[in-house]
Write a structure and sequence with these properties.
By secondary structure, the protein is α/β, with parallel strands linked by helices. It has 13 helices and 16 strands. The chain has three domains: about 110 residues, Rossmann fold, CATH 3.40.50; about 180 residues, 3-Layer(aba) Sandwich (Rossmann fold); about 70 residues, 2-Layer Sandwich (Alpha-Beta Plaits), CATH 3.30.70.260. Strands 8-7-6-9-10-11-12 form a seven-stranded parallel beta sheet, sandwiched between helices. Strands 2-1-3-4-5 form a five-stranded parallel beta sheet. Strands 14-15-13-16 form a four-stranded antiparallel beta sheet, with helices on one face. Bound molecules: 1,4-dihydronicotinamide adenine dinucleotide (NAI).
Length: about 400
C-alpha cells in the first residue's frame, strides 16, 4: 500500500493494524514517478494534489482500490478506474462540521459588522457604536442546499435561536423546526441571512446572480462556502457596493490560485464588511483526523468483505459478514448475460449458492456470490475466464 501527500498518522496506524504493508511519502508524486511506483501497489492513498491519470492506471497492474483522503475526486480519472475495476473511496462527510462552524462564526461576525470594525481598530480608529449591529437570534436563516452541511447548520442555527428556512431541489426531511420553501424565490424574499450549501454540479453555475440578489431583503448577509462558480461574483460585488448586501463571507471562488505562491485575484478584494477566506471551510485538524479514520475503514471493508458502501465509482453494496462460506467477488463490464453465465457455471459444477448480491452502474456490474465451502477449484478458473470479466477474487 502506498500513501502519498502526508496522509494523517491515524490512517497509517489504522492500516498497519489491519495488516497492510504501508509505504508513505510526504509529497505528491509526478505522473512519471507514480507510473513507476504504482506497478506493485494494491492500494493507493492520495489527497487532492496527486493526479491519478489513465496513464498512471495503465501501469497499475495490481491496484484494487484508491482512497482519496479528501472530499473531491476530480484528481482521479474515475472512468478509467471503473473500467479497470478499481474501486475509489473518499471522505464526503468528514469535514462537514468544520464548514458549519465557520458559517456560524461568520454570520455572527458579519451581522455585527466586525470585519470593518476590526480593520478600523488596526488603523487606530475607535468607532464605538451600535449602528448596523444585530443579534442572529430571531433572524431568518435561509439555507440553500439541505445536504450534509445544510442540515447540520440547520440544527446549530436553531440552537442559536434562529428561524431556519431551507430550499433543496430534492425532497428533504426538515430537521427540528426548519421550514421548507417550495421555491428558491420564497427563501430569498424572506431570509435575513442567505447561505449556500449546494453541490458543484455544472447546472448550478451562477445560480445566484443579479435576479436573485434583487429578490433578497435589503441588508441581507450572504455566505458562500460551497463552490465558487455557483455565484455570479460581479453581481455580488455590485450588490455589496450598493449596500443591498450588508456583509458577506466567501470561502470559494470561480478562480482560485493553484498554490500558495500565486496571487489571489478577485473583484471582491477590498470590499466593505467582506470576509474572504482561502477555501478553508473544511480545513481543520479534526476534519483531517476524521478523514484518517473514515477512509481506512472503507478500504479495509472493501478488501476484507467486498463492501462498497459510499464508493464514488462502484455500485454501492453493503454486505453481511460471512460464516462457513466462500465469497466470490466478480467485477465485469455491464453487458447483458454475464450473471447468467456465472450462475450457469456454478450450477453445472454443483456449487451451492448461499447468497448472491448484484448491483450495476453504467459502466460495470458488481456481483458477490457466497458459496458453500466444498467446491471444485476448477470452477474458480472457469469463473475467471467468463467473458467481459474485469477482475475476480475469492475471499476467505
Ligand atoms: P450534499 O451533496 O450533501 O448536499 C448538497 C445539497 O444541495 C443536496 O441536498 C442537493 O439536492 C442540493 N442542491 C443541489 N443543487 C441545488 C439547487 N440548484 N437548488 C437547491 N438545492 C440544490 O453536499 P455537502 O456535503 O452538504 O456539501 C455542500 C457543498 O459544500 C458542496 O458544494 C461542497 O463541495 C462544499 N464544501 C466546501 C468545503 C469548503 O472547504 N468550503 C468543504 C466541504 C464541502
Amino acid at each position: 500500500m502506498l500513501l502519498l501527500e502526508n496522509v494523517h498518522p491515524v490512517a497509517v496506524a489504522r492500516l498497519r493494524e489491519e495488516g497492510f504493508n504501508v509505504e508513505t511519502e510526504k509529497k505528491a508524486l509526478s505522473e512519471d514517478e507514480l507510473c513507476e511506483r504504482i506497478k506493485d501497489v494494491s492500494v493507493l492513498g492520495i489527497r487532492s494534489k496527486t493526479q491519478v491519470t489513465r496513464r498512471v492506471l495503465d501501469n497499475a497492474k495490481r491496484l484494487m482500490v484508491i482512497g482519496a483522503f479528501c472530499i473531491g475526486t476530480n484528481q482521479i480519472d474515475l472512468k478509467a478506474a471503473t473500467e479497470k475495476g478499481i474501486a475509489v473511496f473518499n471522505a464526503p462527510f468528514s469535514n462537514t462540521r468544520s464548514v458549519v462552524e465557520l458559517a456560524v462564526g461568520e454570520m455572527i461576525m458579519l451581522i455585527r459588522n466586525i470585519p470593518d470594525k476590526s480593520v478600523k481598530m488596526h488603523q487606530g480608529i475607535w468607532d464605538k457604536s451600535a449602528k448596523g449591529s444585530y443579534e442572529v437570534r430571531g433572524k431568518k436563516l435561509g439555507i440553500i442546499g439541505y445536504g450534509n452541511i445544510g442540515t447540520q447548520l440547520s440544527v446549530l442555527a436553531e440552537a442559536l435561536g434562529m428561524k431556519v428556512l431551507y430550499y433543496d431541489r430534492e425532497e428533504k426531511l426538515a430537521l427540528g423546526n426548519a421550514v421548507k420553501c417550495r421555491s428558491l424565490n420564497e427563501l430569498l424574499e424572506q431570509a435575513d441571512v442567505v447561505t449556500l450549501h449546494v453541490d458543484g454540479r455544472e447546472s448550478n453555475t451562477n445560480m445566484i446572480g443579479p435576479r436573485e440578489f434583487e429578490l433578497m431583503k435589503n441588508g441581507v448577509i450572504f455566505l458562500n462556502l460551497s463552490r465558487g462558480h455557483v455565484v455570479d461574483i460581479n453581481a455580488l460585488r455590485e450588490n455589496i457596493l450598493s449596500g443591498k448586501v450588508a456583509g458577506c463571507g466567501i470561502d470559494v471562488f470561480p478562480e482560485e490560485p493553484a498554490s500558495n505562491d500565486e496571487e489571489f485575484v478577485s473583484p471582491l478584494r477590498g470590499l466593505p464588511n467582506t470576509i474572504l477566506t482561502p477555501h478553508i471551510g473544511g480545513s481543520t485538524s479534526e476534519a483531517q483526523e476524521n478523514i484518517g479514520y473514515f477512509v481506512p475503514a472503507k478500504i479495509a471493508d472493501y478488501i476484507n468483505t467486498g463492501s462498497t458502501s459510499n464508493s464514488v465509482n462502484f455500485p454501492n453494496l453493503t454486505l453481511p459478514t460471512l460464516k462457513d462460506a466462500h465469497r466470490l467477488i466478480h467485477i465485469h463490464e455491464n453487458v447483458p448475460g454475464v450473471i447468467a453465465r456465472i450462475n450457469r457455471l456454478l450450477a453445472d459444477t454443483g456449487v451451492n449458492i448461499v447468497g448472491q448480491y448484484l448491483k450495476t452502474n453504467e459502466q460495470i456490474g458488481y456481483v458477490i456470490t457466497d458459496i458453500n465451502k466444498a467446491y471444485d477449484k476448477e470452477v474458480i478458473k472457469a469463473l475467471r475466464k467468463v467473458e467481459h470479466t474485469i477482475k475476480f477474487r475469492v475471499l476467505y
